[in-house]
Amino acid sequence: MNFTSLLVANRGEIAIRIIRAAASLGLRTVAIYSEDDAASLHTRMADEARPLNGAGIPPYLDTDGLIQVAKDAGCDAVHPGYGFLAESAEFALRCGEEGITYVGPSVENLDLFGDKGRARTAAEAADVPIMKGIDGPVSVEEAHEFFASLGAGGAMMIKAIAGGGGRGTRVVTSADEIDRSYRRAHSEATRSFGNGDLYVEELVQKARHVEVQILGDTGGEIVHLGERECTIQRRHQKVVEIAPAPNLSEELRTSIIDSALRLAKSVGYTNLGTFEFLVYTDAASGDGAFAFIEANARLQVEHTVTEEVTGVDIVQSQIRLAAGESIADLGLDQPGIAT
Hints:
CATH topology of the largest domain: D-amino Acid Aminotransferase, Chain A, domain 1
Number of helices: 11
Number of strands: 15
CATH class of the largest domain: Alpha Beta
Distance between the termini: 29 Å
Structural class: alpha/beta
Shape: globular
Number of domains: 3
Helix content: 25-40%
CATH superfamily of the largest domain: ATP-grasp fold, B domain
Strand order of the largest sheet: 3-2-1-4-5
Oligomer: single chain
């Protein structure tokens, strides 16, 4: 392995999960904590714990501060976990500039999938179905025009270009809702992601939410670990995850997974990612039965569901891929891993 010490740039449960995976690979781990997290369990699980300046969330978003802590602690790798800076292309870039291995997708992958409009464009270029929408940032006037184009009974989603987790997202079913929904989505996106740009796409009223777990190495090999069903949600937040997704025809399941692999390969995807799709519930099967939504270029909260089904330690896999190992080295090039 080309690094020996890992800074875990997160807190709580995911920090503990990463510390355990790293320890099993023989890596030294360094935890971080804000003033109000000093007594948290993750600080006692690591080989060493380093304080951050300040309390609450801001210290975990301080790129310069985290890079300095990594250097001071002698860490030559960083795992961002999920949330905080996990999808920050800037953070990944800075790590590379400082000679610190970033455990996650490439800067290019983070930059691409951090812009959901560009992600839609990439999907279309890879011949992956997408929903009707506008790929770039839209004004409120353009949102009105798009809604009108949907015709009677149409509905749309106003969504943040950046970020995820349902923040900066509003459902619009009537034209008189657009102005208020746009303002609220813009405000929430700006507050959550520092980027208030919004895009719009048609709302599919009857659909299932299915996501595919992808792993890629730096040699261009891409594999999947099957799919998860996450249709049951509350306020755009996933509540229940099931793997594999029940009641999908094998033809439809294969089409969705093949689309995820095709998109990942087309952009040279590396490390770990989740490619998400809507499946139309009134469709039988085939390419017209689903559409790409977005890709999350990071470890997700629900990764443990896939681990239970496949027996693959996803966090260990992330670390080993970041260290330059191949999909074959991980033993994931064998057929049937995801079944």
